[in-house]
């Protein structure tokens, strides 16, 4: 079939559910922690997330909805606008229920770390909390927030200023994802656990 996207349910496909997210899969999950001006900590997962540059290391995530107590966006973007910093926590399979619990739309003064039963630790280079025991966490300084087409769509770009790696995830001098099983987002309500790993060498690197 072929369809042209629209703002209607199903994005113009005529299907019961929008297939776009199911086509662009799997997607890594950025578990974004931020801090409000009043000191309240926030934690929320975003599957529109990725690394975008090596030197200096940079990441991005997109927020695509809003809530009444934050105006045109949600807690994460509102907090980053004010503080200029955020932390990306890497989600492992064993943290799937906590990650899902932190996705609930809650009032801005509710601490999702507590809501999800998570322990927090303070970051080193920024004023922000991070998920204690996560396989890795990237402390980030905001570089730019870009308003995308469409209502409530914001792209957040940040430069990594500090990197945390759990000691057991480092094997033979490499960060080994098979030590913790990364969680990734599929379409609809579906997720996947990354367990199969293989290596390919580029032709110009032989």
TrEMBL record:
GO terms for molecular function: FMN binding; oxidoreductase activity, acting on the CH-NH group of donors, NAD or NADP as acceptor. Pfam families: Flavin_Reduct (PF01613). Coiled coil: none annotated. It comes from the Bacteria. Residues 22-177 form the Flavin reductase like domain. InterPro entries: Flavin_Rdtase-like_dom, Split_barrel_FMN-bd. This is Flavin reductase like domain protein. It comes from Nereida ignava.
